[in-house]
Batch of 2 targets.
Target 1
Amino acid sequence: EAQVTQNPRYLITVTGKKLTVTCSQNMNHEYMSWYRQDPGLGLRQIYYSMNVEVTDKGDVPEGYKVSRKEKRNFPLILESPSPNQTSLYFCASALGTGGGTEAFFGQGTRLTVV
Amino acid sequence: GIQVEQSPPDLILQEGANSTLRCNFSDSVNNLQWFHQNPWGQLINLFYIPSGTKQNGRLSATTVATERYSLLYISSSQTTDSGVYFCAVRNQGGKLIFGQGTELSVKP
């Protein structure tokens, strides 16, 4: 089954404790990205990747890191989480950036930083 | 940049009723999608519909790209249809631009 898989689904952590949210897709998609969703602010892009070893900042990259060592995986790293990073996070992938390419989302990760 | 606007922002229906949700976008695009965010927060792909009409069960969607709008039709609504419906388009860099959503509540 074609899918984007995120883990974990739910996470409660403490301020400053490094964490990684994993994202994997099995559709051989080149384009992958991370979004966060907050009440009143909608979905905002954090980072994106056009292909292996090619990543770039989205609209709200502060406090996050990403890597794209393999085509299928695009982990989101919070080196020193803070309470303002409490949010619902989504990973998405698409075949490319052009028209004719549908985007698919993971199940979401609900992160709470206390 | 591209602007995406949805209407109405909120909708309350009785089970069995029909509804139409609208999405307007500011620039020519060829990649409009509709999503349903269920009460558990998951974003479910409903339609990838750059133009034309598609149907999937009780749901159908129409995009008129030349007039920059898309419509999502829900017929014979069920309580499981509750949640937030988003339309989104991708800009040239691949980023999804979302509308603010329509929050649908279907009452039994």
Note: The mean pLDDT of chain B is 95.
Target 2
Amino acid sequence: AQSVTQPDIHITVSEGASLELRCNYSYGATPYLFWYVQSPGQGLQLLLKYFSGDTLVQGIKGFEAEFKRSQSSFNLRKPSVHWSDAAEYFCAVGVRNTDKLIFGTGTRLQVFP
Amino acid sequence: DTAVSQTPKYLVTQMGNDKSIKCEQNLGHDTMYWYKQDSKKFLKIMFSYNNKELIINETVPNRFSPKSPDKAHLNLHINSLELGDSAVYFCASSPQGLDNQPQHFGDGTRLSIL
């Protein structure tokens, strides 16, 4: 069965520090992969997606993610975190030929000045 | 110019009542969805509609009934509300669901059952 694991429930970083949020997936074929961000009281906003091709994908707000098939991972990175990046981050896998998105349990990011 | 809008934003009601949440998208998308986010922030799909036709129904109790009067609207009606229905409900839409296009989410409706 398809699943997404985000091992880190809560991460705290200092403003200006680099960030990596982990995401591992279980899927029988090449997956569609997404990262979404949820600010408090808001809906989910798409940061970036991977469908095929270049395994390093660039997103909005300076985020990038790398698809590593051998590790079944799609980790999200940002070289320098801003206080406004504090939010909940969700990794998701899209099941091909369906409408379904399967979400991980999220990672809450706190940023200290 | 909100893309996916849900009303109401907050809904507080008593057990046993019937309530509806409305969703509208102005993106011209063909597919709309309802998700439930529980108190631990876990997001799970409930339903999807493509051009007013039900595509996904994820073992949701039949107290939940989605209705799509046209492809820009997907409303969620809940009968006989239970304590476990307390959650944030998100509506979303995408251009062509079967191609796994990115989904655009509304801001959510926080439902609290007393």
Note: Chain A has a mean pLDDT of 93.
